[in-house]
Amino acid sequence: MSAISFPNEPRAQFPNASRDEQEYIKYLCGVKLTDAGSSASGDDARIAKLEADNKNLLKTVDCLTSRIAELEKKFAALSAGGPAKPAAPPAAAKQKNGGDDDDVDLFGSDDEEADAEAERIKQERLQAYQEKKSKKPALVAKSSIVLDVKPWDDETDMAEMERCVRSIATDGLLWGASKLVPVGYGIKKLQIGCVVEDDKVGTDFLEEEITKFEDLVQSVDVAAFQKI
């Protein structure tokens, strides 16, 4: 279907129309043409605005993409232990103006003297502790022993037996209390206690020394043994 066109001169299209009708037709033609032009101009403006907005949006997206990439690099660096620290600049070389006085550290001498004094005090305290420790008596291991000394028969002089046993004397041996304990058939045994230093006296020594009184002693047994 072809579009209806309105010529600029309505008289050629409508020759029988009155003047007023022709003016009205011209008015209508002018309105239509003006409206069509305004509509086209409005569409162009909207398209231009959309294109501008699209460009701005693309710029924003590019900026965000670049920022995200930068953040990802920083995160990866932190996950790997962080970026290597830049090397410290080398210390400036000391300027020598001549003479040995320039090499003397006036501020460090006090520190060296303080360190020497602290070391001296430390050594003195350590020496005093060692001397005190050496004077302290060492702990001596001791044991409490109870011996059963048995006679040959009921006619054995038990008082003489005890006297002989107590006559055994040596360093690290201290005799204690004693008593006579009935065994049977009128026979009694001598039960005697003593305290010994473990490094100096043992049960074997006591048994050997007591059994030397063979006229009085039949046997020796250890009834009790306890560390002190």
Automatic annotation (TrEMBL):
Residues 80-96 have a biased composition (Low complexity). Keywords: Coiled coil, Elongation factor, Protein biosynthesis. GO terms for cellular component: cytosol; eukaryotic translation elongation factor 1 complex. Residues 142-228 form the Translation elongation factor EF1B beta/delta subunit guanine nucleotide exchange domain. Belongs to the EF-1-beta/EF-1-delta family. This is Elongation factor 1-beta. GO terms for molecular function: guanyl-nucleotide exchange factor activity; translation elongation factor activity. SMART domains: EF-1_beta_acid (SM01182), EF1_GNE (SM00888). It comes from Macrostomum lignano.
